[in-house]
Amino acid sequence: MTKQETTYLKGWAVLFMMFFLHFGCDFVMPEYRYSWCGNDYAGAFQICVPIFLFLSGYGLMAGSMNKGFAVFDSFKKQVRRCFKLLKHYWIVITPFVALAFWMGKFVWSWESLILTATSLRCDWCPNAWFISLYIELILLFPFFFWIINRRNVKWNICFLLFLVVVTKLLGKVGWIDAEGGILSRQVKMFLIDMPIFIEGMLFAKYAIMQKILAKFKNVNPGFNQIWGGFL
After folding, report:
1. Cα distances (Å, whole numbers) of residue 83 to 37, 69, 78, 187
2. pTM of this prediction?
3. Between residues 184 and 213, which one has the greater pLDDT?
4. pLDDT of residue 231
5. Cβ count near 182 (within 10 Å)
6. Dihedral (CA of 135, 155, 200, 65) sign
7. In three state form, how does the secondary structure of 78-100 look?
8. Would you tell me how many other CB atoms lie within 10 Å of the CB of residue 67?
């Protein structure tokens, strides 16, 4: 995909996220809650996070294929990327958390501060739950790249299908499925979303999205207007 096409997809993901947070979550603006808020149709817009994870895997893979790759150097690069993400996250949430304290909405504790700052459990910013998941995935990207880049297409497809099945089964293990603590919640989120991230990597490696978009453009000449016309 070109940078413009990924921007289109990010734009749709942002629109889905805005719709879900306003109408798919009962605890967001309850005074404006409609009868259909929080139902399965509104909840379907949670696809915004998988879209971003897919694009992250896609972008990291595409960038690494165009440059020389060394596992250790790539890991150091991903660590810097994580700190940059956390810095932006802290800048965004700090004024809102401070305002919430001033309004008496939160109770101070060092545990909540550390868990929110690391996104391991966002006591003061529940909608930022995916930050820690994203950090885990990009830190493991060099390992995923090393596996995928050494194999052929058939092996990689089998690898993805194997991950989908195994992660689905492991997600049903009692202590993981219960999400009773920080570790079980992180493990379950990782198991659910890791195949989506790797799928993005495979789409980049084999130029699958370019083939899909080209097919749609051939069928419908106005596809570009539909795809990016609202953004």
Report:
1. 36, 21, 9, 21
2. 0.81
3. 184
4. 46
5. 13
6. positive
7. HHHHHHHHHHHHHHHHHHHHHHH
8. 8
pLDDT band at 187 (very low <50, low <70, confident <90, very high): confident
What's the CA gap between 46 and 20, in Å, rounded? 6
Crossing angle between the packed helical segments 130-149 and 71-102, to the nearest 10 degrees: 170
Helix crossing, 110-118 with 71-102: angle to 10°? 130
> Do residues 112 and 124 make contact, with C-beta atoms less than 8 angstroms apart?
yes
> Taking the alpha carbons of 196, 202, 208, 213 in that order, is the dihedral positive or negative?
positive
Question: Residues with Cβ < 8 Å from 113, sequence gap 6 or more?
Answer: 124
Q: What would the pLDDT profile of 74-130 be if each residue is shown by its tens digit?
A: 788 888 989 999 999 999 999 989 998 898 888 889 888 998 898 888 888 887 888
Tokens 């991230």 belong to residue: 197
Q: Token digits for 206?
A: 């084999």
Judge whether 69 and 61 are in contact, CB under 8 Å: no
Which residues, 6 or more positions from 206, have their beta carbon under 8 angstroms from its beta carbon? 153
- The residue length of the chain stands at 231
Q: CB-hemisphere CA count at 13 Å for 95?
A: 3
